[in-house]
Amino acid sequence: MSHPAPGALETVRAFVNTLDIDDAIEELARPADLGRWLADHDLLGGAGSVRTTGDDLRNAIELREALRAHLLAHHGRALDPGAAEVLDGAARRARLTLRFTGPDDTALEPAAAGVDGALGRLLAIVKAAIDDGSWPRLKVCPADDCRWAFYDTSRNRSAVWCDMRVCGNRAKVRGYRERHA
Ligand SMILES: [Zn+2]
Questions:
Q1: What is the pLDDT of residue 112?
Q2: How many angstroms does the Cα of residue 138 sit away from the middle of ligand 1?
Q3: Lowest mean per-residue pLDDT among 6-10, 52-56, 165-169, 175-179
């Protein structure tokens, strides 16, 4: 039972979870899988479909893993500096642009089309979550064989495991075995 994230941030959580490390399931195995996923999650900005290449898939997976690194850093760990560079690169390719969407409102929107634009929309969601304070609550489970993204709903933002009954217990058992080896 890992909690969904509020609003559009759930799309970022779903994107990180397109790789299920525990069960070795890769949802984005082929470029066409990526195109379908982006369409299913309304990231194409009105376009019904998108053409995807092997480079697009590589970029998307690199971005996904850089996002995962950021979510791991939400446990107070140091962030891999390369991860921020990957996000910067994706933002550049998307040509994220500030748009004035109302009298008191702005939004970041990609000037680029296709997969670059779609991945930019994910970054715009991240930026909005940073602004509204929800971003640090999106975390990945620190278990090496899990790394599942979940939203921390605890009052003091102290949740560690994706699921206390699964990964929390596994870690406890491992700790017990190490102490008693
Ligand atoms: Zn876990």
A1: 97
A2: 13
A3: 175-179
Give residues with Cβ within 8 angstroms of 135, minimum separation 6.
9, 74, 126, 129
What's the CA-to-centroid distance between 74 and ligand 1, angstroms? 15
How far is Cα 145 from Cα 122, in angstroms, rounded to an integer? 25
Task: Compute the distance from residue 104 Cα to the ligand 1 centre, in Å.
Answer: 40
Question: What is the distance between the alpha carbons of residues 44 and 94, in angstroms, rounded to a whole number?
Answer: 12
Beta bridge partners of 78: none
How far does the centroid of ligand 1 lie from the alpha carbon of residue 17, in Å? 12
pLDDT digits (tens, 9 = 90+) for 60-101: 999 999 999 999 999 999 999 899 999 999 999 999 999 999
Q: How far is the CA of 97 from the centre of ligand 1 (A)?
A: 36
- For residue 141, the CA-to-ligand 1 centroid distance in Å is 5
At residue 36, the 3 state secondary structure works out as helix
Q: How far is the CA of 1 from the centre of ligand 1 (A)?
A: 10
Tell me the pLDDT tens digit for each residue of 93-112: 999 999 999 999 999 999 99
